[in-house]
Every structure is written in C-alpha cells, then in structure tokens.
C-alpha cells in the first residue's frame, strides 16, 4: 500500500472529485473488512450506518466542540448522550461523562482524575505541582488486565511496571483475597484497577469485594469496561457486573457494542470536580463558562476536538434501550452456539467459560511444520485467513497460543453461528489430516 500511494509532493492541486475518486480506488485495496458479519479478530463493533451518517454531519458541520460557546449543538448533544449512557449502563446519574477516542484514552482520562484525587487527599496538588516530590501512588491491578491500562499508567507517569499485580483465576478474574493481602499495608495514595470483560475470556472481576477492600484503604477504584460494561444494558447479563456501580470511575467504548464509528469512547467519573481539575484548560481568549453550561474540554484531554458525542446520540436514538439489549443478547447467544459446536469436536478445546461474547480455542498438539514451532492452533488460524471467509486472530492465554473469537458486529446474525463453527472445524480437519499425512 505504501508503494501504491508513494508519489512526489504535488506542485499544483487537482480536481477535488478526482482526488476523492483516486483515494477510494487506491485506498480500498488495503482495507480490512472490519464491519463484516464474520470478522471476529478483535473486539471492534460494526460502524452502523446511522452512526456513520451522524459522523459525516459532524465533519460537514466543522465544529470545534470544545466549549458550549463554540458549539452549542455539540455541547448540548453530548450532555444528553451522556445522560442516556448513564441510564443504559445504570451508573450514577450525576457522574461526569467525557467523550474520548476509545478505551485507552478513556482509561487515561479517568486515571488522571484518580491520580489527582488520591494525591489531593494527601495534601498534594499534582495538577499544579506535578509528581516530583509527590507521595508515591500505589496501583493495584489484576495480572490479566488489558494492555491499554498499562499504557495509560505509563502516560500518566505512574509507570507500566511499577504496579502491584494481583493474582487472577483461570478466567482472568482478580482474586479478591490476594488484593486484600497486598493492600494490608497500603497507607498512602492508592488506586485499584478492576476489569469488566477480560479481553480473552470476557470474565468479570468481583467488584463488590474489590470496592469493599479498596474503600477500607481509602483507594480509588477504576473499572476498565471497554466492552464488558455493556452487559449492564441487558437484564440477563447485568448480574455479571454486580457491584461495579460502586466504583469511582469507568472506561467504556462506543465503537464496540454501541456500533458507533471510530473513534468513540467514554470516560465516566463519579467526582466531576476531580475530573475537571485534571482536565481543565483555560485562557482569556476562550469562551467563558455560563451558568449550567457543559464545557466538553474540561472533561477530556483535548481543546481542539470534534463533536464526538453526536454519533453516540444517533446510535442510542436509533436503537433505543431495547435495541441495545437485543444486540447484547444476540451476540452472546451466537458466541455460546459457536462454543458449543467447537467444544463437541475431537481435538478442540474451548478454554474459557463463555459468559459473554468472547471465545478462546486451542486445537490439538500437532507440530504443523517441522522446526518452526507453530502450533496446530496457528495453522488453523492461517488456513481460515487464507480462505478469507472469516477473520479470526491469535494470542497467548496463560502461556498457550489460542484462537480468539470476538462476536460484536451488528451485522452478525444467529445464522452465522453454525456457518462459522463449520468453517473452523473444516479448517481444523484439513490441518489435522495434513499433519497425519506427514507422519506427525
């Protein structure tokens, strides 16, 4: 693709329509079909048409939605969309909602508020005075936490490695007893990071126990809930998140289960003042805040920003509560059906308890190519990608290379479940037959 686009800087401009036609012709050759009903490689969502159309309006309107004064429409719609999100996710209705690019920046934003708040309790203003000389902030996090949390901790100066890693069970759930043991001597500022929806297994931490332990130590509890927090939108799955509403902050993505286009995420913080203290940006030339006005750039780390909340508003308006609930139910049902089919086959192991939309699978123990170290699982993944009918990815889970299947695109329907399972089982049969034919 780089070769396809490589050309000298144009000395003169070209016709606008010709530029766009050329861009489409060349660009489409390197696109991955991420909004396809059988794309299961990562937890991405489907960029539903309503959200895409709303996003076109955002670009066409050309608003800098940093202040109410600069874009009353952008600020007002974000205010309403934020209220709807809190209602859908059944989180504290007075929490602040910042519209960010995704889970990584959502974690960064909420943890910035957490860092400032726990240090302020110790008499230190990190927002004004920085971290040099500040009391050290202790961070307690599960061993199977998502990499975006570690990235956010690094950006915030708290360190990717300088954390207390809490033991987890076979599903990746934090073990509350180990958290309690590690926090016994925690007397300074501290933050506990819990997880709603482990990226491989879909598992949920025991939030009630975690919050109780953290509160006793005066710690802030943040929840990385990129896709798993949407379980709260369905009455049959919300029990998985019991106690999560008692945390202090949450991060969740819109471009996952809500199907908004990229980029879309939310940083939700119970203490609005703490969030504004960490994010606020001001200057004499910027619009003043009127009584009751929402100032979006006081809630996120951006001054120049698009009206990111508008596609969220459009998707919720389009789906309604029942539509979001139906999406969650459909995808979880599809995942369970795929897992049932795979688990019943010889040589196939489903390695997680499929409580949501995530499946991890291992295939046999064959060495497919002598000396290259590739497992049968990787061979099945490669075979499926080569055929191009579905897209799955691989990753390590507790030391074992696995196939990851994430069911979360709005275009994926119940009928796809058996088709997907059959394609995977056919690829496995071909891999196994080839290995047996080579004497392995």
TrEMBL record:
Claim: Transferase is one of the keywords in the record: yes
Keyword Transferase: yes
GO terms of molecular function: transaminase activity
Protein name stated in the entry: Aspartate aminotransferase family protein
Entry keyword set: Aminotransferase, Decarboxylase, Lyase, Pyridoxal phosphate, Transferase
InterPro entries in the record: Aromatic_deC, PyrdxlP-dep_de-COase, PyrdxlP-dep_Trfase, PyrdxlP-dep_Trfase_major, PyrdxlP-dep_Trfase_small
Pfam families per the UniProt record, alphabetical: Pyridoxal_deC (PF00282)
Cofactors that this protein relies on: pyridoxal 5'-phosphate
Family according to the record: Belongs to the group II decarboxylase family.
């Amino acid at each position: 693709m780089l070769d396809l686009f490589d050309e000298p800087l144009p000395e003169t401009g070209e016709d606008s329509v010709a530029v766009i036609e050329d861009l489409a012709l060349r660009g489409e050759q390197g696109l991955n079909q991420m909004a396809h009903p059988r794309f299961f490689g990562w937890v991405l969502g489907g960029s539903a048409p309503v959200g895409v159309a709303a996003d076109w309006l955002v670009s066409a309107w050309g608003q800098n939605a940093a202040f109410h004064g600069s874009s009353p429409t952008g600020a007002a719609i974000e205010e309403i969309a934020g209220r709807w999100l809190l209602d859908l996710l059944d989180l504290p209705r007075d929490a602040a909602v910042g519209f960010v690019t995704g889970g990584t920046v959502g974690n960064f934003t909420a943890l910035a508020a957490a860092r400032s708040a726990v240090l302020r309790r110790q008499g230190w203003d990190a927002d004004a005075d920085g971290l040099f000389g500040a009391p050290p902030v202790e961070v307690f996090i599960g061993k199977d936490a998502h990499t975006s949390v570690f990235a956010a901790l690094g950006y915030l100066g708290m360190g990717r490695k300088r954390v207390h890693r809490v033991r987890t069970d076979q599903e990746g759930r934090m073990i509350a007893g180990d958290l309690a043991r590690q926090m016994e001597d925690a007397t300074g500022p501290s933050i506990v990071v819990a997880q709603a929806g482990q990226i491989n297994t879909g598992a949920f931490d025991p939030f009630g126990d975690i919050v109780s332990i953290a509160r006793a130590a005066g710690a802030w509890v943040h929840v990385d809930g990129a896709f798993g927090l949407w379980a709260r939108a369905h009455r049959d799955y919300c029990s998985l998140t019991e106690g999560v509403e008692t945390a202090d902050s949450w991060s969740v993505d819109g471009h996952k289960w809500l199907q908004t286009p990229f980029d879309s995420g939310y940083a939700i913080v119970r203490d609005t003042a703490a969030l504004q203290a960490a994010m606020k940006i001001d200057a004499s030339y910027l619009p003043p805040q009127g009584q009751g006005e929402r100032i979006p750039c006081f809630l996120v780390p951006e001054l120049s920003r698009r009206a990111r909340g508008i596609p969220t508003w459009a998707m919720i308006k389009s789906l309604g509560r029942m539509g979001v609930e139906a999406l969650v139910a459909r995808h979880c049902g599809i995942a369970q059906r795929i897992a049932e089919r795979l688990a019943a086959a010889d040589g196939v192991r489903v390695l997680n308890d499929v409580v949501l939309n995530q499946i991890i699978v291992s295939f046999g123990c064959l060495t497919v190519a002598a000396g290259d170290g590739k497992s049968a699982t990787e061979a099945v993944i490669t075979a499926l990608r080569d055929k191009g009918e579905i897209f799955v990815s691989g990753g390590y889970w507790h030391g074992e290379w696995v196939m990851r299947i994430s069911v979360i695109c709005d275009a994926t329907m119940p009928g796809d479940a058996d088709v997907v399972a059959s394609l995977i089982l056919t690829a496995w049969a071909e891999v196994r037959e080839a290995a047996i034919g080579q004497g392995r």
